[in-house]
Amino acid sequence: MSAETLALPTRRRRRGGDLANRLRPLGVIAVAVVMLLALAALLAPLIAPYDPTIGSVVQRYRAPGPEHLLGTDQSGRDLLSRLLYGARTSLMGAAVVVLLAGAGGTVLALVATWFGGRVDAFVGRVLDLLFAFPNLLLAILVVAVFGTGLAQATVALAVAYVPYTARVLRSVALRERRLAYVQAAELQGLSGVVVTTRHLLPNIAPQILTGAAINFGYAMIDLAALSYLGLGVQAPTADWGLMVSQGQDSLLQGHPQQSLLAGTCIVVAVAAFSVIGERLGGRRAGGRA
Length: 289
Description:
Elements: H1 3-23, H2 26-42, H3 44-47, H4 79-115, H5 117-131, H6 135-146, H7 150-177, H8 180-187, H9 192-228, H10 240-246, H11 248-252, H12 257-281
């Protein structure tokens, strides 16, 4: 039996045992909240009582009641329906940002770790260059060039999140790179691709998940900010950030429901993902510091 096969199962069992302890009890509540939001987004076409984009002037600013459980907005659209459909764009956009940034950051971190030397230095300079652009500023620049929309905003934010992911994963991968099981695999003649994908990647996976969970919340905030500024999701599509923006005038007229409800959904979702990330990692090591 080879040295690395002895080391890896032991490490994974220990991490797996810690996972259950870290998730309880607040983490369980956070997971339940995330699952509830995901189900609401997935089942929105089935459970939403009204079309989220169609309203009626005579239904403007209806108070919560049997016909409209959460009331209506300034255009007479049902707020519950818009919140349910808004969960789809808010969660989907953040998920795309996290997936793209996680994939790009992981690849850069593993390449820099394995080859080292000039490759590591080059990757470091690329990351430093990306660090020079604040997330929202980069997204605004991309939107200014390619036009407004959710797709442009998510791609821009994904690029901006890559250095945060790569920086943390590189430090973790460097520590793993120096351990005996990697050296044993190299002595057996395994290629760098095999060692990286079979051994390094599985052992930094917990850190990848931790950073993804925390960055999911940050991505939701940034995407909501872009929609608030009119650069992300466009009306009449339902989106939580856009609803906060559209509810400003109503707020001044004494109808705070739209902004208040959408803002609450964002806060709850971000808090839940942050708790999950902290429980998975034990600390905020994977987030944007």
